[in-house]
Amino acid sequence: MRKRVGVLVSGRGSNLQALLDACADPAFPAEIVLVISNIPGVFALERAEKAGIATRVIPHKGFASREAFDAEMDRELRAAGIEIVCLAGFMRLLSADFVTSWRDRMINIHPALLPSFKGLHTHRRAIEAGVKLHGCTVHLVTADLDDGPILVQDAVPVLAADTEDTLAARVLEREHKAYPLALRLLAEGRVTVEGNRALIRDE
Ligand code: GRF
Question: What is the number of the ligand 1 atom nearest to the C-alpha of 44?
Fold first, then answer.
């Protein structure tokens, strides 16, 4: 049975698209059944609709607290029988209860080689820091922002002429390969967590 996946988005959804494309192969071990956005009208929703996937907009502004908003997302995910949650450019912090209830079943993609450059503006900060390698990380989500056991990383060179935009584009290409790979590993049940490490069977 293919694992049922819910994707949380807030924006353009290019990583969602990479996941949709991977899941379009019937041999892929996961299928996307629901896409939730906290922002109405974003391009990610159009991508989901075009692929024939159910969407739900849950505007966070309509909720009294982060916990109430997360509880509504949780209800939707469970009602759809979701087994794995992918954060794909989802720009909201998640409450501890939500993170705990999806522990080891929720993954995020971050545009940097963690644990370097957690948070925002990773490409600008990488250029400013003068690092020669930059990249992306897919990790299991834990209570701390951009933390949690790492499933997949990929690196690209930082070139002398790079701007934030050229570096972002080089990293994004790798994101679109790393995210489907990480989802595959998790969906195939090949991931075991030991402390801070994710061990991948047969890698
Ligand atoms: C990506 O760079 C991802 O790593 C980060 O947010 C961005 C989302 O882009 N978490 P997109 O919406 O997937 O195009």
Answer: 12
Block residue for tokens 């050229």: 166
Specify the pTM: 0.97
Whether residues 41 and 121 fall in one domain: no
Kindly give the distance from the C-alpha atom of residue 154 to the centroid of ligand 1, in angstroms, as a whole number: 15
Pocket perturbation via mutation, ligand 1, pick of 17, 172, 174, 177 by most ligand atoms within 8 A of CB: 172
- What would the pLDDT profile of 132-151 be if each residue is shown by its tens digit? 999 999 999 999 989 999 99
Do 2 and 91 lie in one domain? The reply is yes
74, 102, 130: which is the final residue of a domain? 102
> Which residue range(s) make up the domain with 63?
1-102
Cα distances from 199 to residues 45, 46, 149, 152, 175, in angstroms, run: 33, 36, 9, 11, 20
Same domain, 14 and 95: yes
End position of a domain, from candidates 70, 102, 134? 102
Pocket of ligand 1, candidates 17, 19, 165, 175: which has the most ligand atoms within 8 Å of its Cβ, to mutate?
175
Residues sharing a CB contact under 8 Å with residue 91, sequence separation 6 or more, in sequence order: 10, 11, 38
